[in-house]
Design brief:
12 helices, globular, mainly alpha
Length: about 300
């Protein structure tokens, strides 16, 4: 039986999740500057949460909560999520935090395009306008200065947003039958072993205390964010909770200023509102369409 919808609770969970993600991305950027390979960061990002969850459930005698009748759906989610995680964490090592975060906000735009291409959904003037507005925001942020936003960083950020759109659909589907702890555990269980293979060529990790602290922090904040985001989708719809995602831009700008002395240029401050507005329009139209469920209505 689907869980009872609790919209305000879902919004609060998503808001805290965004704060956790912002800290995780800050730590990922710092590990890159510390010389830790991204593949190793990804491994610990998955291994530590999975181990922590399994240990916690074992201590409580609740390992049975991890049973699932949908292992292949978890595997598919891990494949999509693993690639999305690689791009999402990779882009923050290429671009400033604020710009990397803003590009992630284009995920709703790709969700609309995927709905048209994969689901044959009819999209009306409001959502097409939002798509155009979001694309304009990307063009503005990209600007003519390739030194500020290199092409490989732009492509990585857009690719990450595309994968997030796919992941959201997967999480919504899994959230109907699986507990958040089960979804998070199986994501780690499927992703960690392949990532461990990439570490064989680099030998045993040899980091100082700061490096290990950053990796531990990435695992802890990543686990918290995954649980919170999955729970938010369990108690509220994607269209309703996604509005909280835009708080991440504020955190990213703050960390960029405090830690890296980086202040986004004017083009980011112009393009970011356009992308955020596009996402909010799409979320609003999804809410409107959801309220008309069961009724025949024109395309939104």
């Amino acid at each position: 039986m689907p869980p009872t919808q609790r919209p305000m609770y879902a919004l609060a969970l998503r808001l805290v999740a965004m704060a956790a993600i912002s800290v995780m991305l800050l730590l990922v950027k710092l590990t890159g500057e510390h010389g830790i390979p991204l593949t190793e960061t990804l491994f610990w990002r998955q291994f530590l949460p999975g181990t922590a969850l399994l240990s916690w459930l074992a201590a409580r005698g609740e390992v049975g909560r991890l049973r699932t009748k949908r292992p292949w759906i978890h595997a598919r989610r891990a494949l999509i999520g693993g690639l999305g995680m690689f791009l999402t964490l990779g882009v923050v090592q290429i671009l400033p935090l604020a710009e990397a975060t803003v590009l992630g906000f284009t995920a709703p735009i790709f969700a609309v395009l995927l709905a048209v291409v994969l689901l044959g959904e009819k999209v009306g003037a409001w959502r097409w306008t939002a798509v155009m507005l979001g694309l304009a925001g990307i063009v503005i942020i990209a600007g003519p200065d390739r030194g500020h936003l290199p092409l490989n960083g732009l492509a990585t950020g857009i690719g990450a947003a595309f994968m997030v759109a796919l992941i959201s659909i997967q999480l919504l589907d899994l959230g109907r039958t699986e507990e958040p702890v089960s979804i998070v555990f199986w994501f780690s269980a499927f992703c960690a072993p392949p990532l461990a293979l990439f570490m064989l060529g680099t030998g045993l990790p040899n980091h100082d205390a700061a490096g290990w602290a950053m990796l531990l922090g990435i695992g802890a904040t990543g686990l918290a964010a995954q649980l919170l985001m999955t729970a938010a989708l369990r108690y509220g719809g994607v269209a309703s909770v996604i509005v909280m995602d835009y708080s991440q831009f504020g955190w990213a700008t703050l960390w960029g200023w405090l830690v890296f002395a980086n202040v986004p240029p004017a083009q980011t401050w112009i393009g970011a509102p356009a992308i955020i507005a596009a996402g909010l329009i799409i979320a609003w139209r999804e809410q409107v369409r959801g309220s008309r469920a069961g009724e025949r209505s024109p395309a939104a």
